[in-house]
Each structure stands twice: as C-alpha cells, then as structure tokens.
Design goal:
By secondary structure, this protein is mainly β. The protein is built from one helix and seven strands, in the order H-E-E-E-E-E-E-E. Strands 1, 2, 3, 4, 5, 6 and 7 form a seven-stranded antiparallel beta sheet that branches. A hairpin with a 2-residue loop joins strand 1 and strand 2.
C-alpha cells in the first residue's frame, strides 16, 4: 500500500490526448479518472449509473436534450443515470470523473470515441 498523495497536476501532465480518461485511484467499486477535454463529445447515456464531473481547470458545458449546465473550476455536477448528455469544452478543460469501475466513456452508445477502459497513470 502506498502512503503517497495523488498530485493531480503531475498526473494530468502525463495525459497527452483529449477524451482519454486515466484512472488515478479506486474506492470500493468506484474509479477516480483524470481527463482533458476539448471540443464536443458524442451524445450518450449510462443506463445503470450516475456520472460525476468535478472540474479542476476551465469551464465544462454539459448539454442535455432540454438545456445545458456550465460547470467551472472548483464545481461539480452529477449526471443522473439514464440521462442523455454531451460534454463540450470550447477551451481545454481538466476534470476528475467519478464513476463505477467498468463504465465506458461513451456509455451505451459505443463507437469510435470509446476510450480504452481501466488505464492507470
């Protein structure tokens, strides 16, 4: 067991691609994933789980079919299970995702934007 803290800035410096979540820790069945986002993602939903976006740097817009929410650095938003959403970032956003182990970034939609799961940094 490691007794070292997890430094987000150091871990984020290891990420060189957008939309590729990287696991930095686990708690019970949940994973904490750092990711850099820029541009628009795909519409998707997660059938069986909520998804938490905790913004570390930048401003994330999460679009829904009936509106949107802006999440700034130091803020978080929980997308309820089954709710279709599309993350968007005009400028690069650095954030922490919190979700159960095994959740794909594209949810039930799949496709070419699906990132490899369970990659640790």
């Amino acid at each position: 067991m490691s007794h070292s803290s997890i430094n987000f800035a150091q871990k984020l410096a290891l990420i060189d691609q957008h939309w590729q979540p990287r696991v930095v820790a686990e708690m019970n069945d949940y994973q904490f994933k750092l990711v850099k986002l820029q541009g628009e993602f795909v519409w998707h939903h997660h059938e069986t789980t909520d998804e938490t976006f905790l913004v570390l740097d930048g401003t994330l817009r999460i679009e829904f079919r009936d509106g949107s929410v802006e999440v700034s650095a130091g803020e978080m938003y929980v997308v309820p299970r089954g709710v279709e959403h599309k993350p968007c970032a005009e400028r690069e956003v650095k954030l922490l995702l919190i979700e159960p182990r095994g959740v794909l970034n594209t949810g039930e939609e799949g496709g070419e934007r699906t990132a490899q799961n369970d990659v640790w940094i």
